Amino acid sequence: MTRPPDQECTHPESGTSRALYDCLEVPLTPGGPRLRLVVATHPATSSPPSIGVQREGMVYELFVSTLPSLAFTAKDVLDLYLHRGSFETVLADEDSEQNPDRWCSHAACGQEFWQILSQW
Prior knowledge:
By secondary structure, this protein is of the alpha+beta class. The chain is built from three helices and five strands, in the order βββββααα. It has helices spanning about 75-80, 90-95, 110-120, and strands at about 5-10, 15-25, 35-45, 55, 60-65. Strands 1-2-3-5-4 form a five-stranded antiparallel beta sheet, covered by helices on one side.
């Protein structure tokens, strides 16, 4: 790419740093609808990429969206595609930290209290 990226972001767990290019109004077909295209690039590693195409030491990932650029940044679009904008993954992490299904009380109200407390 010859121009500087519109945004840069780093994945919190893997540390992968991506340069994001936000391409607005890209025609899907010559006479068809125009869509938003977010191109994410990062240096290639020794393992082949699970998403995207590797060319000349860089990995290129394409994300197509109809989300408006004034409401959602390129990073927001990337987070939604990579499931970091959803709450399900957060809840799954909590389930692995705490086992709310185990029994810790002989009384029903004590067990209900444990389940509420473990969700915090």
